[in-house]
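can u pls check wat happens w/ 2'-deoxycytidine-5'-monophosphate
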Amino acid sequence: MTIVVAIDGPSGAGKSSTARAVATRAKWNYLDTGALYRGITWLALSEGISDPHKLVEALIDHPLIFTPDPKSPTLVCGNVDITEAIRSTAVTDMVSEISAHAPVRRALFDVQIGIIKDAHSGIVVEGRDIGTIVAPDAQLKIYLTADLEARALRRAAELDQDQLPSSEPEVAAQIEKRDEQDSTRDVSPLAIAEDAIMIDSTELSLAETSQRIWEILKGRRLLGLPIVALLGRPNVGKSTLINRFLGRREAIVEDTPGVTRDRVTYECEWNGKDFILMDTGGWEAKPDGISVGVSAGAESAMQEADVLAFVIDAQVGALDEDEVLVQELRKMKKPIVLIANKVDGPREEADAHALWNLGLGEPQFVSALHGLGSGDLLDRITKVLPEIGAAQSQDGFRRVALIGRPNVGKSSLLNILAGANRSLVDDVAGTTRDPVDELITLGGSIWRFIDTAGIRKRANQQSGTDYYATLRTQVALERAEVAVVVLDASVPISEQDLRIITMVEEAGKALILVMNKWDLVDEDRQITLDREIDRQLNQVEWAQRVNLAAKTGWHRDRLAPALRTALTSWERRVPTSRLNSFLGTLIAATPPPVRGGKQPKILYATQASIAPPRFVIFTTGFLEGSYRRFIERRLREEFGFPGTPVQVSVRVRERE
Ligand code: DC
């Protein structure tokens, strides 16, 4: 499946440089659709043709051939290389007018579709109407913009010295006019696709802008890099190993205590091979004495990964929990690399040989602490690594978990949502539990609803213990990006409802609360419900609520906009400069409370990750929980994160 990234936006927003940077990094193709419009404008000028139909006919003898190489895109018309010529002032002045003609757009539409179809693994396409008209099914749509002044400055700097006009106000006037023409024309004007991510590059460098897109691609698993899952009990030294793998390029950021660690991914490179290392965090082996294997995080990591790297503390040896995990790992039928960590000397090495008994082949000895053996280990991992990750076959549809306690109406909601729109059911390969996802069209986009077979089954036969229901919910949550938690609005909010909501929060997923059975809510109930919401749901005040009646379908159209808003917040990134100027003002007005006679100083903050937004504040001392929550609240007020949890953690730096 070809990944298409659409980048639209006004002139000078940095589309070309960004698109080329992303395409180069991903080894994908690149299509500059503006170049095609410039090309046909060049043809009009050089042949002296003004009639759009005649112009399109002229394309037969003078076809436009674009080479979609991000490193050196070229455009040939007939047999003339016009790569440079299309940047002339004459072409620039005419292009908006020419590109507004419907026959011209139709002809170039076909050219664009042809280039997109020919791309193998992926293509970044930039223009004005890519996300809306040319590639409405693009897996990622970006709307890149910037202030007029910033755009004019960039364009003026780009223009040749001898090209006029080149002063910034003149360029500003020129692009403003072009934007106006491009956005007000009748046929496919410059427009923001509903599901586009808006990036304002006014204060961002090219590197920051492309990194932002890269991070989203990575988060949505659209990059196609193979995944190595790092599995093992807590404290076997996984984090030290990761630091070794990364060569300390990226420090590991501690998570807020009490927040379950989601799978954290790192990009690694070894001998020219790129891969994603997925840290699964801790796991419990035998909860409640039931002999089931692994935590949800580890389980879904195992399913997504291409290679399973299993770490054992050689100084402790293989424990019962490890044996349970070995069985789970085997079921995956994927390459397994057994890592004996903490082999810090000859004595440990002798003990570590016992790990042959696990039947996973030769244990790879490493001392993460001393860095011994990590090169050999990486060699071994990269040897079994496939070229392209299996998870890339993910289609890029946003993943939704529909969850809630029994009898709240999940299956009727699913039915009414799917209804006639039930596009197709596909089995997700390689899963042990055989979950079935469903692709559902809502509000103009396709969404992947996760493990809906479970919902159907659960509706009529309350199979399994609470434990299994919880586990299943957790696995669905791990795979999802956003959770729709269904509540029965006609009865009091229960403990179980709250537990499920907490699970979503802890998994770090976006959240929507559906108040179902609204048809049964009368005035009295509404009053008590308001009170319950105030008291019990205040911890997730940020979640959007959708009042809905699954039975009749009332308000079901409210779900898609809510999903979009929540996902937008979930992937939002606040530029470091804005974050720190905001924080500076906030601290000046309300400094952190004094503790033990000392006032902790806040040094700076950074957004460590998106999905969900995670902020790390570097300080000289401990910050009270209440002050952290205060910061979180103000962050939300300032930047707005409706629908997503926001995590704020603190790292104390020793004073130099
Ligand atoms: O991106 P650019 O400045 O090279 O684009 C040149 C012109 O082409 C722009 O003013 C509008 C037009 N264009 C368009 O109409 N649709 C596109 N998809 C791309 C460009």
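The chain has 22 helices and 24 strands.
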